[in-house]
Amino acid sequence: MAHGIFIYAKRWENWLQWGIIVTTIVVLITPIQDWQNHVAAIDTLLVWTELMMVVGRFPMFGIYVQMFTQVAVNFFKFIGAYICLIVGFALSFTILHKNYKSFLNPLVGLLKTIVMMSGELEFEDVFWDDDAAL
C-alpha cells in the first residue's frame, strides 16, 4: 500500500491534477474577491497543461508535446543554473535605471531582465521611452 502511494506521489501529473482540483475548489467555494482572478488564471494554465499532456498520449501529437516538454525542462535548468547572475543583473538594472518604468519595481525588473536575456531586448521600449525621465 505504501509503495503504491509513493509511486503515485512521484508522478508530477498527479500533482498537476491535485493543483487543478484545489485551485478550482478555492475559486468556486470562496466569496468573490479580487485575488480569485489570479487563482483562476493559474487554474486555467494548469488545466491547459493537463490537456496538453492528455493530447500528447495520441501518437500523432506525442512528438510535439515531448519536444515542448524537453525544451521547457532545458529552459528551467538554464534559469536554475544562472538565477544568481540574473537576479544580480536585475538588481543592478533597477539601481542604474530607476527612472525607467521597466525597472521601477525589482520584481518587474527581474522579469524584464529574463526577457532581455532570452533575446527579446526591446532597446527602444526600455531606454527610449517617452515616459521615462532623464
TrEMBL record:
<feature type="transmembrane region" description="Helical">
    <location>
        <begin position="75"/>
        <end position="96"/>
    </location>
</feature>
<dbReference type="InterPro" id="IPR052076">
    <property type="entry name" value="TRP_cation_channel"/>
</dbReference>
<keyword id="KW-0325">Glycoprotein</keyword>
<protein>
    <recommendedName>
        <fullName>Ion transport domain-containing protein</fullName>
    </recommendedName>
</protein>
<keyword id="KW-0407">Ion channel</keyword>
<dbReference type="GO" id="GO:1902495">
    <property type="term" value="C:transmembrane transporter complex"/>
</dbReference>
<keyword id="KW-0812">Transmembrane</keyword>
<keyword id="KW-0406">Ion transport</keyword>
<dbReference type="Pfam" id="PF00520">
    <property type="entry name" value="Ion_trans"/>
</dbReference>
<keyword id="KW-0040">ANK repeat</keyword>
<dbReference type="GO" id="GO:0005216">
    <property type="term" value="F:monoatomic ion channel activity"/>
</dbReference>
<keyword id="KW-0472">Membrane</keyword>
<keyword id="KW-0813">Transport</keyword>
<feature type="transmembrane region" description="Helical">
    <location>
        <begin position="15"/>
        <end position="33"/>
    </location>
</feature>
<feature type="transmembrane region" description="Helical">
    <location>
        <begin position="45"/>
        <end position="69"/>
    </location>
</feature>
<keyword id="KW-1133">Transmembrane helix</keyword>
<keyword id="KW-0677">Repeat</keyword>
<dbReference type="InterPro" id="IPR005821">
    <property type="entry name" value="Ion_trans_dom"/>
</dbReference>
<feature type="domain" description="Ion transport">
    <location>
        <begin position="4"/>
        <end position="130"/>
    </location>
</feature>
